[in-house]
Specification:
Elements lengths: L5 H12 L4 E6 L9 H5 L6 H10 L1 E4 L20 E7 L2 E7 L13 H7 L1
Parallel strand pairs: 1-4
Antiparallel strand pairs: 2-3, 3-4
Length: 119
Amino acid sequence: GIQSGPCEEQLVRLDEQCNEKTYKVGVMYCRAGQQTEEEMYNNEEGGPAFNEFLDVIGQRVRLKGFNKYKAGLCNKNDSTGLYSVYSDFEGNEIMFHVSTLLPYTPNNRQQLPRKRHIG
């Protein structure tokens, strides 16, 4: 069999100590026919099926004053949007960074502020 050495044992211990229960997930809306990242980042709103999908994966939360896991979104001055989608699944907090809920910047084809949050 394969024997594990001190390095592998330390990695296992480190992994067991890491009890991170918070997750950030980027969600982008892609309209029919869109092929480029730039096109997707420039969608200002999602279609009915996309919005239904968001309702399935979590609940829409008002960011201002939100006091749970924010994953880098602002809860003070609406600078990262009014709403986002959040879920607490079996003690795991998940904040979804949704492209159509992040602020849209006119005349900025790359939508860098959105890209910064989604990746």
